[in-house]
Amino acid sequence: MSAVEDYYQTTVELIKLLENEQSNDRDGKIAGVEELLEKREGFMQGMKPPFSQEDQERGKQLVELEKKLARLLAVEKESIKRDIQTLQKKKQSQTKYHNPYDSLPTADGVFYDKRN
């Protein structure tokens, strides 16, 4: 198989992995995505012109797959970002629950010595 065909197969596999919504193991999913992206990078470096007619056709298909892959990766990134923000809000509200007066500016315990 040519490097273009290997790249195409890896891209299809990556898209299937990202489209799998019922995966509850996010860490495993991220590890799989990283592994497939590294494989794709290796195949990309192995691509050398001139390309055959079949490789050019695969290239046209890859352009569409790359757009789809970019959308899926953006959705996954936003999901992770949203979960991180939710976790930070929970952590902040938990801290406020344990110490509700921490964020209030207080002047308690301040003594001003004024001599006349």
Automatic annotation (TrEMBL):
InterPro entries linked: FliT (IPR008622)
tRNA-binding recorded as keyword: no
Main location group: cytoplasm
Disordered: annotated segments: 86-116
Keywords (A to Z) from UniProt: Bacterial flagellum biogenesis, Cell projection, Chaperone, Cilium, Cytoplasm, Flagellum
Subcellular location: Cytoplasm, Cytosol
A Pfam family annotated for this UniProt entry: FliT
Function, as annotated: May act as an export chaperone for the filament capping protein FliD.
Family affiliation: Belongs to the bacillales FliT family.
Name of the protein in its database record: Flagellar protein FliT
